[in-house]
Each structure stands twice: as C-alpha cells, then as structure tokens.
TrEMBL record:
NCBIfam families, per database record: PRK11431.1
Lineage: Bacteria, Pseudomonadati, Pseudomonadota, Gammaproteobacteria, Lysobacterales
Pfam families: Multi_Drug_Res
UniProt keyword annotation of Ribosomal protein present: no
N-terminal signal peptide: none
InterPro entries on file: EmrE-like (IPR037185), Small_drug/metabolite_transptr (IPR000390), Small_multidrug_res (IPR045324)
Subcellular location: Cell membrane
Protein name: Guanidinium exporter
Length: 107
C-alpha cells in the first residue's frame, strides 16, 4: 500500500508543479486553490508512504515522479524544449526511480 500512496503522491506532485504555471504566481484564484490542494494531498500521501518506506527512497521517488511528469507535461502543454539530451536526462531520472523501487525496502 505504501508504494501506491507514493505513486499517487508523485502524481499530485506533478499536478501542483503544473498548477504553479497555471496559477501565474498565485494571481489566478481557482488554479491557485487547486495548486495548494494538490500540494497538501501530495505531502499527506508522501507522509503515509514514509511510515513504511525508507524516507530517502520515498522522497527520491516522489521528487523523481514529479520531475519526470513536470518535464513531460511542460513539453506537451507549454512547448518546453524536448532536446535529445534533455530527454536522456529524464530517462536517467526514470532509471533511478525504477532502481529505487527495485531495491527500495519495505512493502
């Protein structure tokens, strides 16, 4: 169950990262509210996962999921650059996340 919480926390991490862009520095009310809500859900789910998983693994996987998702959605939604080197770096983050899952500890 801890890994499910962690993956969901990572997805909400993506949501609030993208929400920061849509909220335009919290100058837009509803995108700002949604961003803060996603932040809260993400941190609560991370805390639940960290009850069982090693904190280093949980935190690294959480931020890795968020980073990968933010980069991909930045490319898709906002036209961020998708250079081969940038995508290779995302691939390295993905390898790290998968590696931590494979050797990650409890649950």
């Amino acid at each position: 169950m801890a890994w499910l919480y962690l993956v969901l926390a990572g997805l909400f991490e993506i949501g609030w990262a993208i929400g920061l862009k849509y909220s335009e520095g919290f100058s837009r009310l509803w995108p700002g509210v949604a961003t803060v809500a996603a932040m809260a859900v993400s941190v609560v789910l991370l805390a639940l996962a960290a009850k069982t998983l090693p904190i280093g693994t949980a935190y690294a996987v959480w931020t890795g999921i968020g980073a990968i998702g933010a980069v991909i959605l930045g490319i898709v939604l906002f036209g961020d650059p998708a250079t081969p080197l940038r995508l290779a770096c995302v691939g390295l983050i993905l390898l790290g996340v998968v590696g931590l899952k494979l050797v990650g500890g409890a649950s």
